[in-house]
Amino acid sequence: MQSCESSGDSADDPLSRGLRRRGQPRVVVIGAGLAGLAAAKALLEQGFTDVTVLEASSRIGGRVQSVKLGHSTFELGATWIHGSHGNPIYHLAEANGLLEETTDGERSVGRISRYSKNGVACYLTNRGRRIPKDVVEEFSDLYNEVYNLTQEFFRHGKPVNAESQNSVGVFTREEVRNRIRDDPDDPEATKRLKLAMIQQYLKVESCESSSHSIDEVSLSAFGEWTEIPGAHHIIPSGFMRVVELLAEGIPAHVIQLGKPVRCVHWDQASARPRGPEIEPRGEGDHNHDTGEGSQGGEEPRGSGREEDEQWPVVVECEDCEVIPADHVIVTVSLGVLKRQHASFFRPGLPVEKVAAIHRLGIGTTDKIFLEFEEPFWGPECNSLQFVWEDEAESRTLTYPPELWYRKICGFDVLYPPERYGHVLSGWICGEEALVMEKCDDEAVAEICTEMLRQFTGNPNIPKPRRILRSAWGSDPYFRGSYSYTQVGSSGADVEKLAKPLPYTESSKTAQGISSKQQPGHLLSSKCPEQSLDPIRGSIKPMQVLFSGEATHRKYYSTTHGALLSGQREAARLIEMYRDLFQQGT
To answer: Which residues form the Amine oxidase domain (predicted)?
Structure first.
């Protein structure tokens, strides 16, 4: 921090002085994805006026990224609203007319979402053969029976045997393999095809879980993830419309784009008699940004602080600005926490939180969009699924870098063509996705074209006229797509990750002090664990809060999980300061 210059406090206007008398808490939200925007919006709606959102990139939305090409909108990130009954994302979209143009084919109730439930999936082998429909249906029924068994270990407390290695992939592969081999009616050739199909299905599962391999996903915790009832929906105008709806209620000056954070210095009052030798950032002296969501004039904001009073948290930005705060809501991805937690927090995170970060998993799932002049697939085909016949005996989903393309599980047909044109969307995940991200567009387009020719048996398929792809793994502000419960982790780790700092129950100064014993106390009596005065107490509760999809125990990996986690952390602060805002009414 010594290398950074601090901003001066130039707030001397009547409004700032008025807010200073009212004792407004200052909240900094790190990240302008769904979680960060939801948190900021909730706080502002409940009367918090000193809220700042710091977004490292040049855009809002986080892992929602809709790209407009011509008249079509393509989703590099979140694509589906998963479930409708009680899903806040669905209700927000539906209430604002975002689903009016969603076709019946885009309302899928299947477990594995495709762009359309209409038509059939074409399973093709690397020898240019299409697997007969009856074989596909038989295998699919068998696979789904076994998949349903994977849910029972958590939901019914079923013990996990040693052979499964507590792995969804290992259990599924061996169970399906044994059932195929024990079937007395199938000829050997059919059994070989079905055995090869196991790997293809597990690649799809790996992409859906955003793991390198479904073998790394915990079997004992797999059933804890909760699916919201109802259909999966696609938003024709783009998932970014949901993000924009959330941002509409947030004043432009609140969101600062292109503002990466270097370090969160927390527990400042306990660390030293006085905080860092800085002056608080000037009220109304915020950096202007011309990016989306940050345009317009800035309103002066007060802190409720005397200039020499200690702040419990100081946010140090990459541009050397330091922002003092009462509370910071951290919404960065699990991938960023895994790579940067040691330098991102001072003092370092508690041991159990670090252990939870290491145990939980996050991987990369990327999309590859290929646009063609004309379709080479039939009108009944909704996807092209790649089955490598030489993988019938394979027990791994890991490939050497030069064979990264083998991890592509297939291509979905974007539907309807009147909206998208003739476009295929390929899926790839894991370390192989990271290799793909390092290749240029020309190389990826060439390899994908060769694969399509090989699997369809049609050597005349032309190269696509345009390619668009995501790169979530190598993006320094994400380092992955979304989280999963890795072998060795559980939902308890999600709870540990979400727990605010400092841990008040382990603080000796907090023990035995009730809220009624604190004169001028601003906390609600409904928060017994947060027992110190939020303005005058020596240890400020909830200095650092955590949200984002990885912090939601039931809905991790989803957009609704991200949104709900942001609202959850805002609710903690709203309850904490409930009495303050009631006094102001």
So the answer is: 34-268, 313-574
Domain that holds residue 416: 109-230+365-469
pLDDT digits (tens, 9 = 90+) for 233-262: 999 999 999 999 999 989 999 999 999 999
**pLDDT tens readout for residues 511-533:** 222 223 222 222 232 333 333 44
Distance in angstroms (rounded) separating the CA atoms of residues 419 and 412: 15
Enumerate the β-bridge partners of residue 66. Answer: 75
If one counts the domains in the chain, the total is: 2
What are the angstrom distances between the C-alpha of 466 and each of 406, 453, 463?
A: 22, 17, 9
Predicted structure pTM score: 0.86
For residues 244 and 164, membership in a common domain is answered with no
- DSSP 8-state symbol, 299: -
Q: Is the peptide bond before 280 cis (omega within 30 degrees of 0)?
A: no
Name the E strands within 163-292.
232-234, 255-256, 261-265
CATH number for the domain harbouring residue 215: 3.90.660.10
* Encoded tokens for 127: 């020898």
pLDDT digits (tens, 9 = 90+) for 384-432: 999 999 999 999 999 999 999 999 999 999 988 999 999 999 999 999 9
Residue 544 phi/psi, 5-degree rounding, is -125, 120
If you search the block for the tokens 């928060």, which residue do you land on? 527
103 pLDDT band, cuts 50/70/90, is confident
Q: Residue 2: is it exposed, middle or buried by C-beta count within 10 angstroms (0-12/13-18/19+)?
A: exposed
Do residue 240 and residue 349 come from a single domain? yes
**Domain boundary, last residue among 445, 469, 493:** 469
Counting beta carbons within 10 angstroms of the beta carbon of residue 141, is it exposed (0 to 12), middle (13 to 18) or buried (19 or more)?
A: exposed
The CA distance from 170 to 434, in Å, is: 23
Q: How far is CA 289 from CA 28, 48, 57, 77, 256, in A?
A: 17, 22, 12, 25, 6
Alpha carbons 395 and 320: distance in angstroms, whole number? 50
Nearest in space to 116 (alpha carbons), one of 367, 376, 423, 381: 381
